[in-house]
Every structure is written in structure tokens, then in C-alpha cells.
């Protein structure tokens, strides 16, 4: 099982996925090698206009030197699996590579035979396996074989009001006990101790539950694929979630929007959210800005009074607590043009900082540097600008304590089912959301922790045993 201090790295390979819509063509002179059709087709789930522009510029620069043409095809993430399958079934041209695909999609595409594992291994070997965060390689692998080229990551974290914690003499919420104690102590008239997701139809609820589970060694399945949510470790996790959701968090269904709003308004002392909250909390995105009383005169006040915790250690963790980190990858497809590996190497080296610059708060580098400069990319990342409507240097908005914590988050990462080689189960678990539904019932008080645990265990067992 992958934990904080794991040092082993894995050699692995990949080839991926993606789908088609609006093709943006970047041309260069010449043609590819004898086995090439002269065009590298890239499917991207990074579809925002400003992000497409960054990708186009990088592809244009590479194509000018490589002597091939490139096509950039924006595809929404929730459509990429269906579109890739349709392309494969119809015999249409597949993309050469798909970028920013999640671990669940990587497993699904590999299972369906869409990925070229050898190509992924070739890229990582060329760049230097030891320049990647070990956990990124391990969680993007199947046994000893890499499935994709890990690109970047975003973690879930506890965001907490440092001013309220200091005033109450509370420890940062880095353990189950400290998290529960702070939620109870800081739940007062007009303020909740924490706001966390309880929406039965939102994957965010399942992510919140898994975030807590990773800190206590609560696993979804074992190496044989059998459900393990009935373990004592999971009992403790589910009980903690139930206490936080039912006693110290706002009533009713809470999700992405409401948890952010509650914390931004000063109505909650803590929240569990992804690192994408960082630029919004700093007042750099007009659509979502802090609205607390203190924020009226100082838009940056909440950021100045917020701390982050990426791992909440449970009583049964045995000192091996982990955090929830989503790694996204470049998936090279089976049959891709031979120039594709060179292109991905370019995007993970010459163009890597530009890639991270698309959203630094949610693109933590998993290739930290080069053989000659081990911290080159991490150092450059911390100096990038974050924000949408207003831009500010990451290091000017958030103190080094926060950026250092964020940069180190991938090192203490784990995920359900991946280390056990059972990643294929994540697809139906995420699409059907049985765990989120049980968690929502627990948070509303309609079932107790024991009933929720039984429901979760039975749901995972049913999915794991499907033909």
C-alpha cells in the first residue's frame, strides 16, 4: 500500500483516450517518419479558451522543430470515454494522445486496450524516472507497468481559519481527534465548525469520504478485489464523517457551491475542498469571492487567515496516514504515431511550466525537476501567477507554508483501489455514487453509522462481483 514515505518507483507504460469535437489545427512543414501519417492528434479535456491558447502555442513550437502537423481537439471530460469508444468501434482515426485524464479513465482505457504501455515507459525513461514523484508513478501503474505519463496533481485538503484556532487554543486539524474537537469547539451561535459535502448526487461527497479514509488506512477493496469497507478502520472513518456532517456542518444537502459559500462567508470555521479553492479565496476570481465581514475592506483577508492540512491522521493509521490526491496523465494510444513520445517529452520538459501555468493552484508538478536541477519545476511553479479575473504571483498571495504544503502533497498520496490493482472498479463507483448516497443519508440522520457502513460494503461488493 502506498503511504507517505514510500521510496520505490515503478516502471510503467501507457496509451490513452479521448474524444472529438472542434478541431484546432496547428501546422508545420514536412511529414513524419515512415510509420507516421505526419499529424499528431491531441485530445484535451482542458477546454477553457485560455488553456487552449496555451496548449496551441506549445504544440506550435514543438511542431515547428519536429516537422509534423498537430491537431488539438477539445473534449469535455464527461464525454471523452464515450467518444473514444465510439471512435474505436467505428474504425475512425483515434487520437495519438489524450491529456489530463484521471486515474479512473486511465484504468478504463487500458482495460479496453486503447493505451500503449510501452510508449509511456519510453517517455518516463527518457525524462528520468527519478525526476518524478514516486507516488505519481505508482498510482499510474498496473503492477510493474506504467499505464500513462503522470502530468500533474491536485489534492483535497482541510482549509481552516487560523485566527479562530489560535483564539480557541486549538491544534491544526491534522488528526481525527483534533478535527472532531475543533469542529465541536467552533460550532457556535451563527457559525458551524465545518462545512463538508453531503450531496448524494455529487462525486465531491465521495471524494470527501475518501479523503478522510486515506488518513486512517480505510480501504475500498483488497488485492483480490473484495470489498473491505467493513473494516475497523472504515468504521472509524464513517463514524467521523457522520459526526461532522450531522452535528457540526450546515443542515441540508451540501455540495461544491454551498461548502465554498459557507466558508467564504465566515459561516464555517473549516471546510474540506480541493486546492482549486486557493485562487478564489484570494479574491482573484470575480465569480467566487470571499464575502465574510472582514473581507469587505480586504479581499485577501480570508487567505491571510486560512491554513491547510493535506492529511488527517486517524487512530488506526499506524503512522502511515495518506492524503487524497488526483493525478492526471498523458495517455498515449495504441497505434499512435512514433513522434508522439517526443511530443509528450516536450510537454513534460520545455513546455511543462507553461502547462502548469494554466491553473497552478490545481496543477501541482509531479515532475519536480531535471537530472541537473531537481527542484527546477517546483521552484518555477511557486512563482507562477494564479487567478482568473485578477492575476497575482502564487508566492505573493499565499505564504511559503501553504505553497510548500501543496507542493509536497503528492508525496503523501494514496487512492482507493489503485495500489490493489483494482482501479477498474472506480468507474462504476464514481458514476453510480453508492457511497455518496449512503454518506448523504448518514449526514441527514436518516441512517446511523452502522447502517451506512453496511450499505457501503454491500454496494461495493455488488459492483466488484459483476460479470
Please supply descriptive tags for the structure shown above.
467 residues, alpha+beta, D-Maltodextrin-Binding Protein, domain 2, ten-stranded mixed sheet, disordered N terminus
List the helices and strands and how they pair.
Blueprint: E1 24-26, E2 39-44, H1 49-66, E3 69-74, H2 77-90, E4 97-101, H3 103-111, H4 117-127, H5 134-138, E5 141-142, E6 145-146, E7 149-161, H6 162-168, H7 176-185, H8 203-214, H9 232-247, H10 256-264, E8 270-274, H11 277-281, H12 301-304, E9 306-309, E10 323-332, H13 340-347, H14 352-356, E11 364-365, H15 376-382, E12 385-386, E13 392-393, H16 394-397, H17 400-408, E14 413-414, H18 426-432, H19 434-444, H20 449-464
Parallel strand pairs: 2-3, 2-4, 10-14
Antiparallel strand pairs: 1-3, 4-10, 5-6, 7-8, 7-9, 7-10, 7-11, 12-13
| Average residue pLDDT | 91
CATH class of the largest domain, please? Answer: Alpha Beta
What's the architecture of the largest domain in CATH terms? 3-Layer(aba) Sandwich
Largest sheet at a glance?
A: 10 strands, mixed
Low-confidence stretches: 1-34
Secondary-structure content class: alpha+beta
How many individual domains? 2
Helical proportion? Answer: 40-55%
Total helical elements: 20
Rg computed from alpha carbons, rounded to a whole number of angstroms? 22 Å
Amino acid at each position: 500500500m502506498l503511504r507517505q514515505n514510500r521510496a520505490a518507483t515503478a516502471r510503467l507504460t501507457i496509451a490513452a483516450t479521448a474524444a472529438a469535437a472542434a478541431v484546432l489545427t496547428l501546422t508545420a512543414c514536412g511529414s513524419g517518419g515512415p510509420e507516421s501519417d505526419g499529424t499528431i492528434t491531441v485530445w484535451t479535456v482542458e477546454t477553457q479558451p485560455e488553456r487552449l491558447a496555451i496548449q496551441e502555442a506549445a504544440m506550435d513550437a514543438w511542431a515547428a522543430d519536429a516537422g509534423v502537423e498537430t491537431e488539438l481537439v477539445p473534449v469535455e471530460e464527461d464525454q471523452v470515454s464515450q467518444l473514444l469508444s465510439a471512435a474505436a468501434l467505428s474504425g475512425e482515426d483515434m487520437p495519438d494522445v489524450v491529456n489530463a485524464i484521471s486515474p479512473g479513465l486511465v484504468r478504463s482505457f487500458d482495460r479496453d486496450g486503447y493505451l500503449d504501455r510501452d510508449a509511456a515507459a519510453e517517455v518516463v525513461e527518457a525524462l528520468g524516472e527519478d525526476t518524478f514523484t514516486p507516488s505519481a508513478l505508482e498510482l499510474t501503474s498496473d503492477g510493474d507497468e506504467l499505464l500513462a505519463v503522470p502530468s500533474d496533481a491536485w489534492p483535497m485538503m482541510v482549509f481552516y481559519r487560523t485566527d479562530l484556532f489560535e483564539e480557541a487554543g486549538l491544534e491544526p486539524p491534522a488528526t481525527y481527534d483534533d478535527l472532531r474537537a475543533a469542529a465541536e469547539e467552533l460550532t457556535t451561535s451563527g457559525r458551524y465548525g465545518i462545512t463538508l459535502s453531503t450531496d448524494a448526487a455529487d462525486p465531491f461527497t465521495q471524494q470527501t469520504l475518501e479523503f478522510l479514509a486515506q488518513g486512517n488506512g480505510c480501504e475500498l477493496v483488497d488485492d483480490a478485489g473484495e470489498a473491505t469497507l467493513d473494516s475497523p478502520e472504515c468504521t472509524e472513518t464513517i463514524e467521523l464523517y457522520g459526526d461532522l456532517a450531522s452535528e457540526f456542518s450546515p443542515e441540508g444537502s451540501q455540495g461544491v457551491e454551498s461548502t465554498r459559500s459557507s466558508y467564504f462567508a465566515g459561516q464555517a470555521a473549516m471546510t474540506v475542498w480541493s486546492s482549486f479553492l486557493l485562487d478564489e479565496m484570494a479574491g482573484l476570481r470575480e465569480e467566487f469571492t470571499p464575502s465574510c465581514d472582514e473581507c469587505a475592506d480586504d479581499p485577501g483577508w480570508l487567505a491571510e487567515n486560512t491554513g491547510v492540512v493535506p492529511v488527517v491522521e486517524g487512530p488506526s493509521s499506524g503512522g502511515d496516514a495518506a492524503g487524497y490526491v488526483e493525478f492526471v496523465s498523458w495517455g498515449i494510444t495504441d497505434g499512435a504515431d512514433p513522434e508522439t513520445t517526443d511530443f509528450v517529452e516536450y510537454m513534460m520538459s520545455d513546455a511543462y511550466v507553461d502547462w502548469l501555468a494554466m491553473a497552478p493552484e490545481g496543477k501541482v508538478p509531479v515532475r519536480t525537476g531535471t537530472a541537473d536541477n531537481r527542484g527546477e519545476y517546483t521552484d518555477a511553479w511557486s512563482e507562477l501567477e494564479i487567478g482568473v479575473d485578477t492575476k497575482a504571483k502564487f508566492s505573493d498571495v499565499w505564504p511559503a507554508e501553504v505553497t510548500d504544503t501543496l507542493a509536497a502533497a503528492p508525496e503523501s498520496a494514496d487512492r482507493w483501489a489503485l495500489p490493489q490493482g483494482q482501479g477498474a472498479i472506480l468507474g462504476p463507483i464514481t458514476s453510480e455514487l453508492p457511497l455518496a448516497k449512503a454518506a448523504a443519508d448518514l449526514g441527514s440522520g436518516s441512517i446511523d453509522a452502522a447502517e451506512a457502513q453496511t450499505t457501503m460494503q454491500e454496494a461495493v461488493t455488488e459492483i466488484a462481483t459483476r460479470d
